[in-house]
Amino acid sequence: MKRLGLWACLWASTLAPIYGQLTVELTQNQDQFLPGEPIRLAVRITNLSGQALQLGTDPDWLTFTIESQQGAAVPQLAAVPVVGGFSLESSEIGTKRVDLAPYFALANPGTYKVTATVKVKEWTRDVSSQPRTFDIITGVKLWEQAFGVPRAANDPPGEPETRRYILQQANYIRGQIRLYLRVTDASGNRPIKVVTVGSMLSLSRPEHLVDSASNLNILYQNGPHSFNYSVFTPDGELKVRQTYDYLTTRPRLQVIEQGKIVVAGGERRIANSDLPPPQPLLAPESPKPLNPP
Question: H/E/C letters for each residue in the chain?
Answer without folding.
Answer: CHHHHHHHHHHHHHHHHHHCCEEEEEECCCCEECCCCCCEEEEEEEECCCCCEEECCCCCCEEEEEEECCCCECCECCCCCCCCCEEECCCCEEEEEEECHHHECCCCCEEEEEEEEEECCCCCCEEECCCEEEEECCCEEEEEEEEECCCCCCCCCCCCCEEEEEEEEEECHHHCEEEEEEEEECCCCCEEEEEEEEEECCCCCCEEEECCCCCEEEEEECCCCEEEEEEECCCCCEEEEEEEECCCCCCEEEECHHHCEEEECCEEECCCCCECCCCCCCCCCCCCCCCCC
